Amino acid sequence: MADVAFVAAHPSAVAAAMAGAQRWRGWFPDLRMTVTEDRGDLGIRWKVDGPVTGTSEFWIEPHLDGSLLHYFLHAEPKAPMTPEQIVADVRERRVRGHDVMFDVKFTAENGRVLGGPAAGEVERV
């Protein structure tokens, strides 16, 4: 599954909003996520294990005066599922991914005046 959202913030502000294992583990508590590539202001990639196994990524793309935040989850269920269970699981994970993207968006844009310029660059330590 995949999704994309515009974030009115510099890519470094988006990356900072995603920083910390507690943060992204809290977004997906049923998954064990192991960082395979921390790409800094370009995003982060994980190996995913749990009820589904595969990979996940948040990719940050500079766009206009902000960023496009792309979300990908490429995973297969570990246990056999009926078609109805698959549809329900995909829907739940798609909605959860969308909610997470908006959590990142609102965190990165924190303090930005609606209609004003994008949130500025954030220094990462």
Secondary-structure map:
Blueprint: E1 2-7, H1 11-18, H2 21-27, E2 32-38, E3 43-49, E4 52-63, E5 66-77, H3 83-108
Antiparallel strand pairs: 1-5, 2-3, 3-4, 4-5
Helix pairs in contact: 1-3
Give a short overview.
The chain has helices at 11-18, 21-27, 83-108; strands at 2-7, 32-38, 43-49, 52-63, 66-77. It is an alpha+beta fold.
What does this structure look like?
The chain is an alpha+beta fold. It has helices at 11-18, 21-27, 83-108; strands spanning 2-7, 32-38, 43-49, 52-63, 66-77. The protein has one domain (2-108): 2-Layer Sandwich (Alpha-D-Glucose-1,6-Bisphosphate, Chain A, domain 4). It is built from 3 helices and 5 strands, in the order βααββββα. Helix 1 (11-18) packs across helix 3 (83-108). The model has no long low-confidence stretch (mean pLDDT 91).
Order of strands across the main sheet: 1-5-4-3-2
At the first level of CATH, the class is Alpha Beta
- So, the CATH homologous superfamily? START domain
Count the DSSP helices. Answer: 3
* Termini Cα gap: 32 Å
Main sheet record: 5 strands, antiparallel
- Oligomeric composition of the shown chains: single chain
* Approximate helicity band: 25-40%
- Give the class from helix and strand content and strand pairing: alpha+beta
Strand fraction: 35-45%
Provide the residue-averaged pLDDT.
Answer: 91
CATH fold-type name: Alpha-D-Glucose-1,6-Bisphosphate, Chain A, domain 4
Radius of gyration: 15 Å
Number of strand segments: 5
Key features of this structure:
125 residues; alpha+beta; five-stranded antiparallel β-sheet; 33% helix; elongated
